TrEMBL record, chain A:
PROSITE patterns: PROKAR_LIPOPROTEIN (PS51257). Keywords: Cell membrane, Lipoprotein, Membrane, Palmitate, Signal. The keyword Transcription regulation does not apply. The lineage of its organism: Bacteria, Bacillati, Bacillota, Bacilli, Bacillales. This is ABC transporter peptide-binding protein YtcQ. It comes from Paenibacillus segetis. Residues 25-46 are annotated as: Disordered. Residues 1-22 form the signal peptide. InterPro entries: Bact_solute-bd_prot1, SBP. It holds the Pfam family SBP_bac_1.
TrEMBL record, chain B:
It is found in: Cell membrane; Membrane. CDD domains: TM_PBP2. PANTHER family: POLYGALACTURONAN_RHAMNOGALACTURONAN TRANSPORT SYSTEM PERMEASE PROTEIN YTEP, PROTEIN LPLB. It is a multi-pass membrane protein. Belongs to the binding-protein-dependent transport system permease family. The chain crosses the membrane at residues 34-52, 98-119, 140-170, 190-214, 235-256, 288-309. It comes from Paenibacillus segetis. Keywords: Membrane, Transmembrane, Transmembrane helix, Transport. Coiled coil: none annotated. Residues 94-309 form the ABC transmembrane type-1 domain. Pfam families: BPD_transp_1. InterPro entries: MetI-like (IPR000515), MetI-like_sf (IPR035906). This is Multiple-sugar transport system permease YteP.
Amino acid sequence: MKKKSFSIFLTTLLTFSVMLSACSGGNSSNSSKESKDPVSTNEGNKAAVVEAEGPTEIKIMLPLNTSETPPDTIKTEVEKITNTKLTYQFFPADTYEEKLNTSLATGSLPQVVYLKNQTTFVQMKESIKDGQFWEIGPYMSEFPNLSKLKPEILNNTKVDGKLYSLYIGRPLARQGIIYRKDWADKLGLSAPKNVDELFKMAKAFTEQDPDGNGIKDTIGVVDRNELIYGAFKTVSSWFGTPNTWGEQDGQLAPEFTFSQYVDTMDFFKKLREGGYMNQDFAATSKTDAVNMFTSGKAGLYIGGSMQDIDSLNKDLIKNVPDAVLDTHSMVAGPDGKITQWMIPGYNNVALFPKTAVKDEAELKKILAYFDKMMTPEVSNLMYWGIEGIHYTVEDGKAKAGDDKELIEREVKGYKDSVIGEAETNGMYQPYNVLPGRIHAEELLLENVKFGVADPTAALDSATYTSKGVELQQIITDATYNYIYGQLDKAGFEKQVESWKSRGGAQIIEEYNAAR
Amino acid sequence: MQEVTAQPNAAPQLKIKKPQRSSELKKRIWRNKWLYVMLTPGVLYFIIFKYFPMYGLIISFQDYKPYKGIMGSEWVGLQHFQRLFTEADFLNILSNTLILFGMNLLFYFPVPIILALMLNELRGTFFKRFFQTLVYIPHFMSWVIIVSISFVMVTMDGGIINELLTYFGFEKVNFLLSPGWFRPMYIIQIIWREAGWGTIIYLASIAAIDPGLYEAARMDGAGRLRQIWHITLPAIRGVIVTLFILKIGSVLDLGFEHVYLLLNSMNREVAEIIDTYVYTAGMRQGKFSYSTAIGFFKSIIGLIMVMAVNKISKKMGEEGVY
């Protein structure tokens, strides 16, 4: 009897302890199916070192811009070609910074870590300087394909003059307008040549019933709660505001100290007060903004990548079958000059943590994988998918298949992780069908002629690294408050002063010293 | 785990002379062994998830560098606490937190009690059940869903409420982006989501009241309201006080998610609370030591509050939580 009860007791205990450990392991809600518990990162590496001849095991974490984790279709093919055993851990882009920071804090980063964007890269700089990541500069020459990466862009990603990362290339200036050409034609408007015409177009789209349903239910511009990748920065650059930092009396100064920045704020204030844009844009998410556009309610989508026209068009014609979209950029400012802000040529980077990559030999194996990624065979596979299923080749270019949902599901996750760009990794250029997209590709090349780079891209400021993002919040809030009429010009100036007194002045000093 | 398992088996073989008391204790433990077994998971839960993580508080006195670990990081004393108290926004954030908490106490706390009394007055089991279920269902929706539903209703870009306002000839109201509307929206959403769920405990304690009391009161000619006032409320007073004390303990803990979803550039001056501030500093900007220090500060305030309120309630002759 006693024995029996004791065994019951043990069983109960065991059950509870299993339950407890199960609970504690289940904190990463959307790690991919094949990824084991993300907390244990070092098991695979040891094995890889022992069996040097077998496939290299690589664990990679990266942000996911779609709603579901892609299946292994593409991954399996890549593994075959590159003789690797890959574990891609996808995490939703929305909460990726958190995932990154918690993994960093607990020392559980995998061997390859993609960041999210340039802002996260700035935040990582402190850890990079602390020596938490491998410097890869010295090894680059050993890999013929990695050596093709553009030196000017690599320079933009250097920290203290050393290279730690591989970049994911993007066109320098892809921002512009995607607009309803059918509305413009109906109202007899041509694409806006300058900011005044842009304003007039937004007004006309709101007031002149462009969808012809007899109800005043349309707006001009649709924007979202984002100053950089929303409409604000692109329009500010047309007004002649410098790209993040600019020269004033021979000194570098932040963009919001320039009069053009205030002009841009006035532009948006007028736009909103007139009802020519969505009133709640400061609280509107990207999804909601896109939905507003694709439901046929708004006529101008500004600031996103003009290459997004394909996906916007796909959803718009479901709702409005005879809608026609076109792209446009190079809008002149009040003084007739055209300027267009440029990104530093990359939108994300991959880093290699020392906690997971134990030695040089292992690092070289991982770099070898990326070297193979920069061959047309692998980069096409990861960027376009499998030929005949996800795309076909026409005139030596890749034409995406008709099943956009399938491409979104199986390829998009990997597409955003391909390093380099078509010129360096040899993947196919896109074969475009949509006239607006073909136009967009021409505009991309034209834009660069008027391009303005961020002069601080390759400069370093310790204060900016530690406090810049936090301080930027002051300016972001002040900008919205000004547009919504809660702050006047004096109030805005006061916030700029507050930015300076809380560390901004040091940032200005450090950047000017670093030149 | 060890001490619990060792006790029952060790009993027979050990024949060391021990004072009477300990063998008495062993007997008692052995007799109630199943109660101890049932206690184990709870104790383990607190040890593993509540006590063990306290080790991590160490990093609030350090300049914590993840790759150096807790052992290898540099000690900086109270630097992070100093930074918090000298932060320009600190007073603003603290007062926002306290105001929201005060409103929560004032407008939300009584609602479940009133609702429970109302539900209790319903005659007919079916109706009672039906309404009770109806009011507590929202609790199972996440904040994301509730805030999204509110967004769709109150947005100026075609939200139903603003459409109605225009229809009746009023001006549109900017619910989402004006500092004045943040607090009312916050409270309304909390009441909508949590009030029904909060009634459960009160209803249970009302159900335990001796019906004889009501009968006697009716004989004495007490009406419905009199019965509530003289019987129901005094009977659940203890529960109300206990829940009130527990609520006070979470004075600086308003639940991060809900506020964070409502937060934007326009209402930050009233909507930034300690929880959202910690999240931004810690999770999004990776200042682990600093955000741990804030969390530590928060816990201490909570502890002090609970102890104070507990003392007061004991003075008033109530039970208290310990």
